[in-house]
Design a protein that fits this description.
CATH architecture of the largest domain: 6 Propeller
Distance between the termini: 38 Å
CATH class of the largest domain: Mainly Beta
Strand order of the largest sheet: 4-5-6-7
Number of helices: 2
Structural class: mainly beta
CATH topology of the largest domain: Neuraminidase
Radius of gyration: 29 Å
Largest sheet: 4 strands, antiparallel
Helix content: under 10%
Number of strands: 38
Number of domains: 3
CATH superfamily of the largest domain: TolB, C-terminal domain
Shape: elongated
Length: about 450
């Protein structure tokens, strides 16, 4: 079994099987901040410390026979607890009000003689965790359900074997990026042709999410150790997820299988609020809401050596950006760099050269925030050709904080959300048919995506 403490809306001590099933609350009353837990495996007892109410209590594995081992200022701010033989060992932090915050002491308490005084063994500096190391603390069994089989698999599981209700039963689990087969043992890679991925902060991570919210499949290895990933996009052909970690002032990428993690841009990035991958020309576009207010482009490969600023100035807070390389430009454009020329796309159809006017243009679109709540017509969506020329305002009336642009290429429709008006709008790329599609109360929208699967918005 697995035992753990939790506090917040409801402080509690809980128990579950070691595969996460059969979750049960053991204690919920007279608790405020349970911070440490320890077990007596022989007597099947659960000890825990409450750092707010200053006590150490005990119950059995079913939550019964609760009683207090010790209470008072001697056991205030307990953050580490372990049991061995007749004693409890506690890592106790000094009272911060006494000016000794951060200093920890190691206490020894007799858990059966409740009249015995706790003994201070030593000072531990800033330590918060403690364990007793001894073989008796981890008793062995003759056999268990996760023993390695003749094929070298633990419990017959392809990846991970977890003990279940007892050491005689087990459940198989798969590592991130794989799903469990119908036999309950084998692991397979799910088809990564359709899934959502999202970024969040505190801690900063980018995760994949199955379109079927009832599924627990993770279609990509999480991108971890980030601070504040605000902008994300992908390149399906290479399997890369691209991200802008705004607080770390970098743009990076990682493949959905967890390999190829690298920082591709890190200089002159003040506040990148939007990125967009040109999957045809293999270029990356981004907005930079710094002191210069720019829109830039670089190759997906060797990005730091091929970057170029396309637009600068005449923007307040450039945010989201999307590109539409499917609509061919009136002429192919190339940008110079230290490595030579790189172009937005290759034109193999000579018809596009001879009769360029019959081809629709390849556009990039971006949003620009304003912070004037009096004038509701100064937020805007702009567009330009993907070489930065032919810049123009696309939508400007009745918007203030436009965010989260996305395109439905099948219907030539743009969607965006306004974080001030708390609604989602759409407009055809020819500038007609603007309308509000969703309206919510007290929700701030900062990201948005459209999928053709059942025509759903996220």
């Amino acid at each position: 079994m697995l035992f753990f403490t939790d506090y917040g809306n409801v402080a509690k001590v809980e128990r579950c099987n070691m595969d996460g099933t059969n979750r049960t609350r053991l204690v919920t009353e007279h608790m405020e901040q349970p911070t440490a837990v320890a077990l007596d495996l022989v007597r099947k007892l659960v000890y825990w410390a409450d750092a707010y109410l200053d006590y150490v209590d005990v119950v059995d594995y079913h939550g019964g026979n609760r009683h207090t081992i010790i209470q008072g200022s001697q056991v205030s701010y307990i953050y580490g607890l372990t049991a061995f033989e007749d004693f409890l060992y506690l890592c106790s932090r000094a009272d911060p009000s006494k000016g000794t915050a951060g200093t920890s002491e190691l206490l020894q308490i007799h858990r059966f003689n409740l009249t015995a005084q706790p003994k201070t063994l030593t000072s531990l500096g800033t330590s918060r965790g403690i364990r007793v190391y001894h073989k008796l603390a981890q008793p062995k069994v003759r056999s268990h359900a996760c023993e390695t089989d003749v094929y070298g698999k633990p419990g017959g599981c392809s990846h991970i074997c977890l003990l279940s209700g007892s050491y005689k039963s087990r459940s198989c689990r798969c590592r991130t990026g794989y799903s469990l087969g119908a036999d309950g043992q084998s692991c397979k890679k799910p088809k990564n042709d359709l899934f959502l991925f999202y970024g969040k902060g505190r801690p900063g991570v980018i995760r994949g999410l199955d379109m079927n919210i009832k599924s627990s499949n993770e279609h990509m290895v999480p991108i971890e150790d980030l601070v504040n990933p605000r902008a994300i996009d992908y390149h399906a052909e290479s399997g890369h997820i691209y991200f802008a970690d705004t607080t770390s002032f970098l743009i990076g990428r990682q493949k959905i299988d967890g390999t190829g993690r690298e920082t591709i841009l890190k200089d002159d990035l003040d506040n990148v609020e939007g990125i967009s991958v040109d999957w045809i020309g293999n270029n990356l576009y981004w907005t930079n809401d710094g002191y210069r207010k720019t829109i830039s482009v670089a190759r997906l490969e060797q990005a730091s050596q091929t970057r170029k600023t396309l637009l600068e100035g005449d923007m307040s807070h450039p945010r989201a950006i999307v590109v539409d390389p499917l609509n061919r430009a009136m002429k192919p454009f190339c940008l110079s760099s230290s490595l030579g020329l790189f172009c937005s796309r290759e034109f193999t159809d000579s018809f596009a050269y001879v009769y360029p006017h019959v081809r629709p243009n390849s556009w990039m679109y971006w949003t620009d925030w304003e912070e004037d709540e009096v004038n509701d017509s100064i937020g805007r969506i702009e567009r330009a050709w993907m070489d930065g020329s032919n810049r123009s305002i696309f939508v400007t009336s009745n918007m203030l904080w436009p965010n989260g642009l996305t395109l439905d290429h099948g219907t030539s429709t743009m969607y965006w959300c306004d974080a001030y008006y708390d609604h989602i709008e759409k407009i055809h790329l020819n500038g007609t048919g603007r309308m509000v599609t969703f309206c919510f109360l007290s929700i701030d929208f900062f990201c948005f995506v459209m999928t053709r699967q059942d025509m759903e918005a996220y």
